[in-house]
Amino acid sequence: MVRTQIQLKESQYRELKQRAFYDHVSLSGEIRRLLDKTLKPSKTDYKRKRAFSFVGVGKSRLKDIAVHHDDYLAGLRP
User: Fold this and answer.
1) Degrees (nearest 5) of the Cα angle 65, 71, 73?
2) What is the pLDDT of residue 51?
3) How far apart are CA 18 and CA 27, in angstroms?
4) pTM of structure
5) How does DSSP assign 8-43, residue by residue?
6) What pLDDT score does 54 carry?
7) Helix 27-39 and helix 10-23: axis angle, to 10°?
8) Nearest to 16 by CA among 1, 2, 3, 28
9) pLDDT for residue 57 is more than 80
10) Confidence of residue 75 (pLDDT cuts 50, 70, 90)
11) What is the C-alpha to C-alpha distance for residues 32 and 9, in angstroms, rounded to an integer?
12) Cβ proximity of 20 and 26 under 8 Å
């Protein structure tokens, strides 16, 4: 592990101390747990990023696709 020093707002410190107390962990452990939860991308996040990576890669002659994309996907528009 790497040792570091951070500055917190008084309200953040109190909230973290309270959470750590209820979770029966140290303040450092609570911070690590919250960081892991925040920094680790979920499978849903990965899938969403992968899906959106295709946005804008193609060209279309359709000028109203941004407005009527659902209709095009459903086959309601030619």
Assistant:
1) 85
2) 79
3) 9
4) 0.52
5) --HHHHHHHHHHHHHHTS-HHHHHHHHHHHHHS--H
6) 76
7) 100
8) 28
9) no
10) confident
11) 17
12) yes
Q: How far apart are CA 50 and CA 6, in angstroms?
A: 34
Structure tokens at 13: 């410190």
Give me the count of residues in the chain: 78
Instruction: Indicate the SS3 state at residue 57.
Output: coil
Name the amino acid, one letter, at 62. L
pLDDT in tens, 6-50: 999 999 999 999 999 999 999 999 999 999 888 877 777 778 788
Residue type, 56: G
CA distance 18 to 52: 39
